TrEMBL record:
Keywords: Signal. The keyword tRNA processing does not apply. Gene3D superfamilies: PCu(A)C copper chaperone (2.60.40.1890). It comes from the Bacteria. It comes from Streptosporangium fragile. Residues 39-48 have a biased composition (Low complexity). SUPFAM superfamilies: DR1885-like metal-binding protein. Residues 1-22 form the signal peptide. PANTHER family: BLR7088 PROTEIN, COPPER CHAPERONE PCU(A)C. This is Copper chaperone PCu(A)C. Residues 182-203 have a biased composition (Gly residues). Residues 22-48, 172-203 are annotated as: Disordered. It holds the Pfam family PCuAC.
Length: 203
């Protein structure tokens, strides 16, 4: 028994070594090599040199029935150079803007972030309620908890980054990322894109 186990272990090692060395060559068309596509992939795809310029950690979208909502998460710059996100898009909304929350004459308002989101080299930029966020307007589809929403961010150099955010209830209050707009959540002025709510704005 011991001998058999040792032998099969040795055989396994030999096979592993064989398939590993086959990965580097042109023998991948052999049926034997195809049996373990995942092992082969993980063995050969190890170098991280082709990783994404930007990653999004824990992306989420505040649940909503319709109308406006926002996406949050942490943008992580994986490069040695500053990265700027200049625009966003999502099938969920025809109007996606990069927003910030700022003090405007003693009143906190949200507005398009001039110049976009800048992520320092090897640094991070947090999108969170009360701060920068990806604004979604004109949402016609309900976002439920757990919903998966696809996004595309475009960087200054034209590169795009795709990620999926998850629908999440946010108990901290609707107003946290839109302070100063009252509790109804309906009277917000979005710089002209509010449509039906125009006229109620800040003058
Ligand atoms: Cu906003």
């Amino acid at each position: 028994m011991i001998v058999r186990r040792a032998l099969s272990a040795g055989l396994l090692a030999a096979l592993t070594a064989a398939s590993a060395s086959a990965c580097g060559g042109q023998e991948t068309d052999r049926p034997a090599a195809r049996q373990e596509p995942q092992a082969t992939a993980s063995a050969t795809a190890a170098p991280a040199a082709t990783g994404p310029v930007l990653s999004v950690v824990d992306p989420w979208v505040k649940t909503t029935k319709k109308g406006m909502t926002a996406a949050f998460g942490t943008l992580v710059n994986n490069t040695d150079a500053e990265v700027t996100v200049v625009s966003g898009a999502s099938a969920l909304s025809p109007e996606v803007e990069l927003h910030e929350v700022a003090d405007s004459g003693g009143k906190m308002v949200m507005r398009p972030k001039e110049g976009g989101f800048v992520i320092p080299a090897r640094g991070t930029h947090r999108l969170q309620p009360g701060g920068d966020h990806i604004m979604l307007m004109g949402v016609t589809e309900e976002v439920k908890p757990g919903a998966e929403i696809a996004f595309t961010l475009t960087l200054k150099d034209g590169t795009t980054l795709e990620f999926t955010a998850v629908g999440k209830d946010f108990a901290g209050g609707k107003e946290d990322y839109q302070p100063g707009h009252g509790a109804t959540g309906e009277g917000m002025d979005h710089g002209g894109s509010g449509g039906a709510h125009a006229g109620e704005g800040n003058g």
